[in-house]
Specification:
The protein is built from 13 helices and no strands. By secondary structure, it is mainly alpha-helical. The protein is globular, with a radius of gyration of 23 Å.
């Protein structure tokens, strides 16, 4: 039996309400973060339909025009529409941050599983290397890698990804060392199960929930790192539309009163980072076993 749109909406609202009663404020933190992220993702996906101008068009209106009905976020010194650049810039920062988090999670989780399960000299050497990388401040390390590479999306993605690999490695390795001593893992070893089978079927499913929380947190942090690198001129070439680059270009006009050139890119960077942080915080609390005992 098909439900009408009104009934479907009522059902959805009811489910959200029940989840809110079960998990409390943590659920609504997660929902708000998810709404922020979804909204910006949709904006980036449909950028061509939403943006009123081409982001590179240098003849959209007067130079350094303040926000108005024609230019919702004003224009920059090259007569480009700031609103259109904000919309298209979402694609760049989302792509870099999410791809960097995916790369670092795949590498870090794989290395953590193998290192923790195998142990021995390999584990000690790899742990020492990861601890050495982890000891460097993330932004400084990203700047060092970005400075060695040619400006570009691939380069900045790699520079951002490297700094999060030790986070996943340390987390997964610690959990693997504990889980591999469990009776069900020992039983699997006793019946001759291959190491890769034990890692994939018995250990990996027990660490993935925690890494999901770390992933969302890392995306939020990667957004700030990407914007910082681009702001410093180490990330992307001028041919790429990016919020961090617009922030850097607009700072020199702030003393003369053109506040919109840095306000809107800065606000969007902060909003997107906060969205992923809220999503991660909500997931962390909801997946906390002690919370489920309420």
């Amino acid at each position: 039996m098909k439900h009408s749109p009104t009934q479907a909406l009522a059902t959805l609202i009811g489910r959200f309400s029940r989840m809110g009663q079960k998990y409390g404020v943590e659920w609504w933190i997660l929902v708000i973060g998810g709404i922020i992220i979804l909204g910006i993702i949709l904006m980036a996906f449909f950028a061509g339909a939403i943006a009123p101008f081409d982001p590179f068009d240098q003849d959209t209106g007067p130079q350094l025009a303040p926000p108005s009905s024609e230019h919702l976020m004003g224009t920059d010194n090259l007569q480009r529409d700031v609103f259109s650049r904000i919309i298209f810039g979402a694609r760049t920062i989302l792509g870099v941050a999410i791809l960097a988090a995916i790369i670092s999670s795949i590498v870090g989780i794989s290395m953590g599983l193998i290192s923790g399960f195998s142990g021995g000299v390999f584990d000690k050497v790899l742990s020492l290397v990861m601890d050495s990388v982890y000891s460097f401040p993330g932004l400084i390390l990203a700047i060092a890698f970005a400075a060695m590479l040619e400006p570009g999306i691939i380069s900045i993605t790699f520079a951002v990804a490297v700094i999060y690999i030790p986070t996943y490695f340390r987390l997964v390795r610690g959990q693997t060392l504990t889980i591999k001593e469990e009776l069900y893992v020992e039983a699997a070893k006793a019946i001759g199960a291959p190491g890769i089978t034990i890692l994939w079927k018995y250990i990996f499913p027990n660490v993935i929930a925690t890494t999901a929380v770390v992933f969302t947190m890392n995306v939020g942090d990667a957004i700030m790192i990407e914007a910082a690198l681009t702001y410093l001129g180490l990330g992307l070439p001028p041919s790429v539309v990016d919020w961090g680059m617009d922030l850097a270009m607009g700072k020199k006009f702030l003393p003369s009163g053109q506040w919109w050139l840095i306000t809107f890119p800065g606000a969007m960077i902060s909003l997107l980072a906060v969205g992923f942080t809220m999503l991660g915080e909500g997931l962390a609390e909801i997946l906390n076993p002690r919370l489920l005992e309420r």
